[in-house]
Amino acid sequence: MTSVHGPGEGGAPQQFATEASAFQPQTRASRRTERSMLRTWVLTGVAAVGFLVAALVISAYLQIAFGAQTAILAVLVAVLPLMIVIPTFLWLDRFEAEPKRYLAAAFLWGALVAAIVAATINTSAMAVLAASTSPSGAELMTAVVVAPFVEEAAKGAFVLIMWWFIRREFDGVIDGMVYAGIAAAGFAFTENIQYLATAYAEGGSELLTATFIGRCIMSPFAHPMFTVLTGIGIGMAAMSRSGWVRFVAPIGGYLLAVLAHALWNLAATSAGDGMFAVYLLVEVPVFVAWIVLVLWTRRREGVLIGTYLRPYADAGWFAPAEVAMLASMPRRREARAWARANAGRAGLSAMRGFQDAASELALLRRKMMIGHSDERAIQDERTLLSSVVSHRRRFVGRPVA
Q1: Where are the alpha helices (DSSP H) in 67-114?
Q2: pLDDT tens figures, 124-148
Q3: How far apart are CA 271 and CA 278, in angstroms?
Q4: For residue 399, is pLDDT > 50?
Q5: Helix, strand, or coil (residue 41)
Q6: Which of 102-111, 226-235, 270-279, 388-397 is predicted least confidently?
Q7: CA–CA separation, 32 vs 26, rounded Å?
């Protein structure tokens, strides 16, 4: 771990501008080697082709099974719950927003890759089970036993990939929850299309409406609630020094997600006429508990940002009032409003950049404190400090005094 150096000798604030200017801004792209850039483009191309092929497969299936008109109607209706679910996870991610390209990849993974994998395995399992039991028994066993294991593994795999291969963008529990929730939202989107199309094909607009109410209004967060447990486990592993925790936490999170999914499916398939009572007594309390968890986790991230920025404030990089602002979302909004009032849109943009860089700096510091410190981490720290200085000058016009 490295110590935090102040902007001047001894951290003197009056020397802030001179010393801070010594840190020349560097983007991450400028520090990549040609080989790493080539690898990035190759992986991006492979992912794009994979997603395209998966999209074509699903589109072909929907058109063959239901016809173009029914499929398009189902897609339009299935989009509606996304307008609630996706903004919820973007709101959760406000302190240190993840790159949009990774969030888009998470959604596409859930909607395309995870959906195809789960549909293939679930259908095969149901066919095998139907050979030894009744069709209704095979359907129940698939929904309660097979589907939770398969679907949670397929959705959670994206979070695992992010932790393993893009660790510098993976900062802990919040990131695990966000990537898991977005991937699960994509999975639910594709699954809802199939259920809605089937309902319309079999029962017209009346059955379509009932299915929409049951899946899109009464339980739009079902899949995200399950998969978020996997994301929490992986996030805990990412921030732990213990090899035991790093091994057990992802598995524990996954098994909890499977259990929650299985119990939810069991309640839905066995309730019959008592489904509404089960919804009020079981599913609504579970959802409320999940909301409380989301709110607590978001507030905790603000506290962590304040905690890990204080050493930089002690060294002169931040004023104490700035640290207090950066640790509170309401104060961040007030700061953006002030910046816009004083410096227009350029000031607002600079304040947003300042807040983003400071959040990333705090979470980087946290990772360095638990042992994830190397030459690149130290360089990233310098780059983020330079970014903080640059953005502050644009909305204040002078260094901290």
Answers
A1: 68-92, 100-108
A2: 999 999 888 888 889 999 999 999 9
A3: 7
A4: no
A5: helix
A6: 270-279
A7: 11
Helix ranges restricted to H, 171-239: 173-212, 222-238
**Cβ(155)–Cβ(110) below 8 Å:** yes
User: Token pair of 76, please?
Assistant: 């339009």
Q: How far apart are CA 326 and CA 308, in angstroms?
A: 11
With 0-12 CB in 10 A as exposed, 13-18 as middle and 19+ as buried, what is 285?
Answer: exposed
In terms of residues, how long is the chain? 401
For the chain, what percent of residues have pLDDT higher than 90? 59
| Domain edges within the chain | 34-270, 284-401
Report residue 319 as tokens.
């004023």
Q: Which of 234, 284, 283 is nearest to 256 (CA)?
A: 234
Tokens of 68: 């173009």
- For 44-164, strand residue ranges (E) read none
Q: Worst-scoring range by mean pLDDT, 178-182, 379-383, 392-396?
A: 392-396
Question: How many degrees, rounded to 5, is the angle at CA 66 between CA 64 and CA 69?
Answer: 105
pLDDT value at residue 377 = 86
Nearest residue to 309 (alpha-carbon basis) of 322, 298, 296, 297: 322
Residue 329, exposed/middle/buried by CB under 10 A (0-12, 13-18, 19+)? middle
Reduced to 3 states, what is the DSSP secondary structure of residue 291?
Answer: helix
Number of alpha carbons in the 13 Å side-chain half-sphere of residue 317: 28
pLDDT tens track for 152-170: 999 999 999 999 988 888 8
**Contact call for residues 106 and 51 (beta carbons, < 8 A):** no
Distance CA 171, CA 354 (A): 18
Give tens-digit pLDDT for 266-301. Answer: 887 876 656 677 777 777 888 899 999 999 999 999
- Under DSSP, the state recorded for 178 is H
Q: How confident is the model at residue 30 (pLDDT cuts 50, 70, 90)?
A: very low
In the block, which residue shows the tokens 């299935």? 78
Tokens of 375: 């030459």
